[in-house]
Amino acid sequence: MKRRRVAVTISLPPEMANDYEKIADQEAKNKSQLFRDMFLLYKKRTLEQEFFDLQRYGAKMAREKGVLTEKDVERIVFEGR
Length: 81
Hints:
The protein is mainly alpha-helical. 70% of the residues lie in helices and 0% in strands. It is built from three helices and no strands. 0% of the residues are buried.
């Protein structure tokens, strides 16, 4: 049977550890749940940033190739057919 949890040890400066405990208390969560929530939020933000970076890169490449409108995209798509 697979383990459902894996213990992870982290170290924090004392002030950050106190803030972490206060936030857990304020949110009425244990420290593990708070960490999981924080990690998922970080992961979501990182993936969103990656998406926006790719979107900017794609827009830049499209501009460099003269693809500026939806009609330009359609033209390119139907050229190859």
